[in-house]
Design goal:
The protein is of the alpha+beta class. The chain contains 25 helices and 20 strands.
Amino acid sequence: MSEKRVFQKYLRRYLSVVMIVVLCCIPFGYSVYRYVKEYTLTQSRSQLRENVGILDVQFERMNTIAAVMSGNSSLQNLKRVRGQLPPERYLYMNDVRDTLSDVHLIYSFSPFSFLVFRNMPAFISSTQVSEDYYRHYERFLSVGDMDAEGLRGTVLDTGGSAFIPFRTLTYYKSSMPRTIGQGFLYIVPLEGAASLGEASAYQAFVVDGSDVVNTLLPVDTKDDSLILLRDKNGDVVFTYGIEPSESGQPGLSADGVQRIQGRQYYVNHFENEQTGIETTVCYAMGSIQAQWANVMRTLLLYIVIGCTAALVLTACFTWKWFKPLGRILYEVNRIESVPPEGENVYDYIRESLFRMVSSNDKIKAEMLLADAQKQSILLEKIFMQGFPGQEEKERFRAGLPLGQRNGGGYYMAAVCVSHEDAEQESKALLYAAECFGQLCGRFYLSVYPESNLVMIFLAENTAAADGVSCVQDDGARESEGREILELFQTVRDRTVKNYGARVTVGISQRQVELDRINVAGAQARQTVSAYRDRDRSVVEFYQTLYAPQKSGLHMDVIRRLYDMILCSDRKALTECFEEMRTEILTHPEQYEFQKQAICGSVQFMLNSVCQQMMLPLKENIDLNLGLQNQSFDWCLWLLLQRALSICGQIDEQKSGKKESAWERLKGYLDDNFSRPELTADLVSRETELSEKAVYLLLKERTGTTFAVYLETLRLEYAKKCLLQTDWSNERVAEEAGFGSTNSFYRIFRKKTGVSPNVYRKGQREEII
């Protein structure tokens, strides 16, 4: 039989399975294609619906601005004017202009807006600088070839909310001309409480067509998409990518795939109920097809890569797993005849090996020796970590006496030997184990996990008959314990007498379930660890309730440590750990049995602090194996270092939060000091800081109170306005946030010693 033929046989099976999977994937791939196609169209329409919603929100914001302007008292007075307003009454127009500018800054979609009146020829703009309200074409606005009266008449003729398209529009902001290519005006009548009949004032918002395109279309679809906006009367308001003559096609108002300008488009139609504007967006099918084609190419690429990787890995692993089988086949073929074609390969190998082992005692002995070594390794692993699986547990149970198989008890013992001479130490350990075997009259197993330690599994003395174990009462168990204690004391005395070594024996509690064999082993080792520093040899059972009557390591201490770490009190923390260390050194053996529980509680407390303060968790001390032989003093020192490290992290976190809070508070006051209603309570609510924190931060950073600091900010701003502007004192007081002119005069004179007028005049003379 050729090993190459066997390998090819299994490889052909894999390739057959791959072909079947690929054929089954064809209908699945078609279904995926249809799903991806529908998903792409749905996602495109969903995104467009969101973009149209954003555009509708912008129109609603324009209506909000118009509603705010309608309630302006100066605007109500201007509505009553017939003809031109006298220059001395321009205060109304100035107030309307300032209000329009302030409100217009809130919403940035429309870069420019202006007001016209039915009964007077004035124009008021949101970006107007000049106070000549009757020459708007030279000051802030020009629309195509339309003159001022024509534009005014067009706006007034709308009679209500309407849209006026334009090809070019130039407006002036800070005396700089800015031109908009294609767009439209959104006209809103300004109705107020004093208006009767048709509106006597209208507000016109300039809408840039490029902003509409950027709002509706993603960047990658702008070049191939079409946009058409119609008002509620069906008139075209704005077009993009399509000529106005073609925009009147009736099919554009329906959803679905249509042919426009010789290309396939996916038409989406939306309508706004409030403004009545109809939005039609046409996506080029080429771009949509490119999207789902990219998705399908990615899926196919992943499928090809997956199949190729599976083929390569399977071939590699098959060859790796087959190499031992190939060597066996080669050796078998050298000795025996080749089996006929079609015979099971594994049956052939199994029978050939059985014949070879049966005929060769040496090979059989080597295999038995390997099994014994594996059993020893398994036994050591079971004593230390428990049973890895049910199969190992049943195999171990099968090797026990009948009484232990049916629930008899057992003990685990750890015998530790210490000697100055390493060679004498090894001899003493072997002698102790041999002496125990001679004295013990019951079933036991022994394992040497370390050079100076032997672990012994000791079965309980239970008589068994007909598969039923005898259960001991409490008196029998106490007698059993004394017998085991005397047995190990005899072993200890003989080893000490013959080798002069120190022998420490730790015996676990009585156990019944085999699943607890690793627990019993840990108890025995922990007992040895508790008494390893004694000057004399000892034999002790594991003690569960052995604790000092007055312990300093209870929950109150843990809570104290918790508070100390949160407060970053390093001194008190160190002193508390020192008190714990002093008490542990006073009762070392007693605390050794509580080491794991106490360190676990402290570690849980440290983890709780880290979770509360959102700090990264550190590694916990492992007391199960590696550190079990370390002293309790060393474990406490390690926990103290970790606690001090957490204190440092908490200090850094608190410092960062305090600096962030001050920056937030200072920035808020710099931006809002001009609000007359500003109080510490309002600052606290809007900055999400407590009122106490506001006072403390200002006192710590500036050395002043909240009122003094706020007064200083307002006074500095007022000085700047007096020097750099021609504003009246009343406006300076209002802009600086003093609330009233009298308060401004009083505080300014108190802080500077002069009135605002004298300060302005004196400072300007000094500059000159």
